Amino acid sequence: MNTITLTGIVCALTCALPSAALAQSSGGQRVDPATAGSLTGRVVFRGTPPAREVLNMNADPVCVTEAGPNVVSDAVSIDPSGGLQNVFVYVKDGLDPGSVFETPTSGVAIDQRKCQFSPRVLGVRVGQLFEIVSSDPTLHNVHATPSANREFNIGQPVPGMRFRHAFTAPEVMVPLTSDIHKWMAAFVGVMAHPFFAVTSPDGSFAITGLPPGSYTIEAWHEKFGRATQIVTVGPSQTLTLSFEFPPR
Length: 248
Fold this sequence. Notes:
This protein has 248 residues and is mainly beta. Helices cover 6% and strands 40% of the residues.
């Protein structure tokens, strides 16, 4: 699908999203907050950090003006102690299939600012409002190429335009790219539950409200791949995890 759709704030939320995206879950088993546990931890890179790529934005003079010289990619961002940013950490397996989690009424947004996606990695629930915003005074294009969800390819030529969407199936991860600005990339983790996080600049993360049980926890990074751990969370317990990625 190579058709680019120009889009902006053209309708109310109810005409932008399927009705299922607006409905709240009902019935089923809910998490008891009195016994819910938490996962905290850190993702680190072991080894010599790779050099960060300098982005060539010369194809669009507006991007050069907005972003300035010598802009580096945030695909690999490692702090001095090895903390790895932009890792998507989530419960991959182990949740009771009868559990029900309310769809958030608030949305999640990704911005196109200084000709990069911000944030680069984010999570959203199935059916939750997902907005793509353009803040730059140039033509932006966002091309999503999922495997379990619907592909879309939209253009936003005017600052302030918003595209509203709702993913219909879980998927880790949905890539977002630009057919106009080839250096732009972002990744969306689409989840059926709320137990996920994206690591901060020092590599730390926290997942709260998790019911007691045994789980497979996965950490995903766009360059370094995936790492998993199996953990058991007791009632009201907080576990501390550590994930390590070696050079590739």
